[in-house]
Amino acid sequence: MSDLQKYIVGLVMYPGMTALDIVGPQTVLGALPNMRLHRIWKTLDPISTDDGMVIVPDTTFENCPPLDVVCVGGGLGQRAVVDDPQVLEFLRRQGSGAKFVTSVCGGSEFLAKAGLLQGYRSATHWTARKQLAELGVEVAAERVVIDRNRMSGGGVTAGIDFGLVLAAALCGEQTAKIVQLLLEYDPAPPFDAGSPEKAGLDLVNQALLYAEGTLNLKVN
Amino acid sequence: MSDLQKYIVGLVMYPGMTALDIVGPQTVLGALPNMRLHRIWKTLDPISTDDGMVIVPDTTFENCPPLDVVCVGGGLGQRAVVDDPQVLEFLRRQGSGAKFVTSVCGGSEFLAKAGLLQGYRSATHWTARKQLAELGVEVAAERVVIDRNRMSGGGVTAGIDFGLVLAAALCGEQTAKIVQLLLEYDPAPPFDAGSPEKAGLDLVNQALLYAEGTLNLKVN
Q: In what residue span(s) does the DJ-1/PfpI domain sit (chains A, B) (predicted)?
């Protein structure tokens, strides 16, 4: 496998991110033989995810090499950093040269604010579709969306599907299938409530109230 | 929600664990209003997962309160710690009083080595079924298995399904559905290769070679 093209992948971190948004793609890409993963933030100080796990970045914006894949996720803390000029400048700089500019869940908002998604189709978390559209992005209610070199996953758990689609694009379908099998990605959700369409209006409204009340997520 | 029964959940960490095994359940349980999550290891020193992410535990074996739910995952590094007497003593001590004694993926082997699974049915990663059976456990090739107060998920990504089943058991079906919707768990695997049965013998054999060669996982 030593003659495989190597890819440098950057996973952007920040306080209040959703761990699974990043850990989904990380698990898939980390199982490929030719990826070098960087977990990137302004500093190497530990950051807390929105479910309370503490992760230590290994790369800063400043010392990050040119990325082949840049990926940013969403999270309850995203509102506090989504307009941060340092973050947006990093995304713009890396995005201009990357082979794939990608997001999972609300991470699409970062790319849009950096001017990287206008004129492209993108997925996002279902609660964030409206605000992404208001940023001039063509929002697609799909699990994984590819538009030229932009690739995006829908909400949280879509990062696994996204990761496998990206793995197939970078390393071929056969390797992606092997990784899917090794991750035993044969999902069996206990309920049929994973999308607003399947959940129905009542559950959607309950979920919005729950998000606002319990999770303090301001949904517009 | 303040009158809801509170649950204390312990997620056991160790060097070389698979992050997603733990982050799957963490993401579901962390979205519930009445869970207190602890990420537990011998010390508070940062640990590296088998895909290279550095996580900082927040609780040690010594200062961990009595747990209502104890959960342990698998990982490429598990062979180095699965016989560690301190780990097994911790699991035995917490397991004797916990409401649910649980595992995801190869984490079932820890529970079996601690004597907590003999006489029970349990799921595990498909490559680990044989060695779990050799420890006297009734191995079930199911995604999520409940046997009295033991609850287990299959390989890696099964931790999300497991988390939702556990959420329903602790907080009711309606809350679990809301969380499923907020995590947008409406999976769309790009290939139908997520289980050995679906993947077929050729891909299974390729995956075993890949695991042994690329991931250095000794499969027996």
A: 12-167
